[in-house]
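A quick aside before the break. I want you to see a complete sequence-to-structure record at least once, exactly as it would be stored in a machine-readable document. Don't worry about memorizing anything.
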Amino acid sequence: MDEKRRKTLVVAAQIIGCASAFFLVIIGLFSEDYGWVHDLWSEVFFVLNLVVLVVLGIALFTHRRYFKAIAVYGFVVAIMNLMFLFLPNTPLLEWFTVFTAFGYVGLISYNMAYNETQQS
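That is the input. The structure line, written in tokens, reads:
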């Protein structure tokens, strides 16, 4: 993949990721007590999160300094997000999916920090 396309995909993932984070806050504001409102924003969050996981995975998978295991983890988390969309909405599945996505963000941060120390 050429660098211009990769950068475009990464920027798109960042923008969609910010929207996803916003909807995660909205989910917190509209707890499960709000019924369908909570469910609606949860689904929006998980669809956007799924897009971020897939787009970022595609963009970075062929990058020479990106750990392939992190990409695989991201794709597994994306599959779990798909389960959320097709299975009944349960708090356990919601939280599990959110924390696995946070784990992905942490792994990408680790990857970036590791690469930064290797260049020093």
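Two observations worth writing down. Residues 3-119 form one domain. The chain has a mean pLDDT of 88. We'll return to this after the break.
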